[in-house]
Structure formats: C-alpha cells, structure tokens
Write a structure and sequence with these properties.
homodimer, 138 residues, alpha+beta, Arc Repressor Mutant, subunit A, Dna Ligase, domain 1, 3-stranded mixed sheet, two-stranded antiparallel ribbon, 6 helices, 5 strands, flat, DNA-binding
Chain lengths: 138, 138
DNA sequence: AGTTAGTTGAGACATTGTATCATTTAGGGT
DNA sequence: ACCCTAAATGATACAATGTCTCAACTAACT
C-alpha cells in the first residue's frame, strides 16, 4: 500500500488514525476540508479526535501523499495522485478535471537545474466557468 | 491601473482600503498571510480594520487580481501576475520561482472545449528542496 | 510478551475568520 | 461643486478553525 510505504520510508508509524484519514480522502474522490475529513473518518473510527485530523493532514502533506488546495471557504485536501490538472472558477469555485498535462516531462530538467527532487505537480487554470461568465456579462 | 479597471469592470468601488491592500501585496513581492497584509497595509492606512482585509482579499480573488496559495502555516495571497510557476518543497515550504511555462498556449483550447474563460494559470511542482532531500536521506 | 518512543484524544487555549450594525464614503446625477 | 444613495468600512461580538499540553495508549522492535 502507498500510504504504508510513504510513512515507513520517512520514519513514521502506520496507525489507525492515519489509515482512516487517508481512506476518507481516497473514497471521497474530491478535495475535503478538515471538518469533512473528520466527519468521514469518524465513520470508520468514531473516537477520532479533531487535533489528530489536523496533525495527520499536515503529516500526509509533508510525506507527499496529500496536497492542500485553497478555494472559497478555506483549504481543502486531496490525494496527490488525483486531479492535479483542472480548471477552477475564480468566482464560484467550480472545478473541472482535465485529462492530462503538458508539463510532465519537466521533472528531470528541474532536478538537474535546481537540485529539486520533483515528485508531482499541480496545474490549474483560473478564470470564469460558463455560468459565472454569462452572469458577469452586463 | 490594473486594480481600478478590474474592480470597475465588475461593478465594485475603488476605495482606499482596496488600494492599500493591493499595494501591500504588490510591494511585498512574496505571498502574504492575511495578518501580514493587515500589518503592511496599516502602514499606509493606520485605521484599517481586520474584517476589511478579509473582505478585500476575497473580493480581489473573485475579481481575479489575487490568488490564494496554501502552504505550511495557512493560506497566503499574492498578485495573480507574479510567480505563477514554481517549485515548492512539500516538507519545509521553500519556494523557487521558474522563468516560464509550457502551458501558456492552452487557454483557447480550453475555452473552446469547456466554455471556460481562462485568465491565468498556476503551475507548481512538488517535491523536496535540496536541503530537505539531503536531510531525508538516511 | 516486554519495552519504549511515537502517537493519540480530550480539553483548554489561541488564532483566524465572519456577521452585525451604525457610520462613512465613492461616485453618479444635478 | 454639492447632494444623494447604495456600497463599503471599522468596531465589536461571535463562531469556527487550528494549536498545545499531557496522561493514556499502541505500533513495532526485540
């Protein structure tokens, strides 16, 4: 399992809380706010604490498994493996996933140039969705 | 001025608070947290209120002038015109700006395909900076 | 199974963001 | 230049969000 490897490699333990938080993000299939993660994760672990969710989300970000994303109404988290290419409406926050991306091949180039170990990327286009566009017309 | 046009076009007023907040972001040259914006903006407008900063940042995002960016320690805001291509370390949050980008030409394609009016984009590569990379070695 | 350091949950606390409302102000009309 | 009005502001109270501490628990090594 991805989660287990990533945690172990970085010297962290694989705990129930961490498994259940990762699972919540995986099954949701969309970015979740910390509060939503807590609610979802409690279905598989009723006693889960709020502080632990925050701690775990931060940890999963550091470990590279999860990516934080801003939006109207606060930050949301999603698995780093899904939906890294999207259109997002700056007005209403609507999102639309893109199939794929023209930036894939740059990883080695960047590693060479900056000594950065690139593991993933996020490509977002900002603008207005069809609805907001129409509404903003006049 | 960019600010004035963008606000007027969307039917909002151009006020002292808005000017001073935008100026704070412009002169900072790096993403600022709301608290930092407040502090910076108060230099040019001592009586500025906290609530107004939040209101203004959200407004400038909706209007497309400012972009929110998550990171260790909360969301930060920067002008949409600067630094939209970067390397960011998932561990310590260090950033490195990139000169330019391979995704520029996609705007029309996306407009055609999805009816989206693309105004800008964000391309971020995630991974480990040289320092964190070394430290994570063992 | 025993040991121990990493992790957790509860709750207090601090910080950050929002709603309300009286007062001020931008900016169009006259 | 001066009104007029709706939009915007600042203060305050409030709600939500995130952090810290610490005793209890547990993953994982032996």
């Amino acid at each position: 399992m991805q989660l287990e490897r990533q945690l172990r490699k970085a010297g962290f333990r694989v705990t129930r809380a961490r498994r259940v938080v990762a699972a919540a993000l995986a099954t949701a299939g969309r970015p979740l706010s910390p509060a939503e993660v807590l609610a979802a994760a409690r279905r598989g672990h009723p006693g889960l604490g709020r502080a632990t969710v925050y701690r775990t989300l931060n940890l999963l970000v550091r470990v590279g498994l999860v990516v934080p994303r801003p939006g109207p109404g606060g930050v949301r988290y999603s698995l780093a493996s899904e939906g890294m290419h999207r259109l997002v409406c700056r007005n209403c926050g609507a999102e639309r996933l893109l199939a794929d991306c023209p930036a894939g091949g740059l990883a080695e180039e960047l590693a060479r140039r900056y000594g950065f170990q690139v593991e993933g990327h996020l490509l977002e286009f900002y603008g207005l969705c069809p609805d907001c566009r129409r509404r903003a017309k006049p």
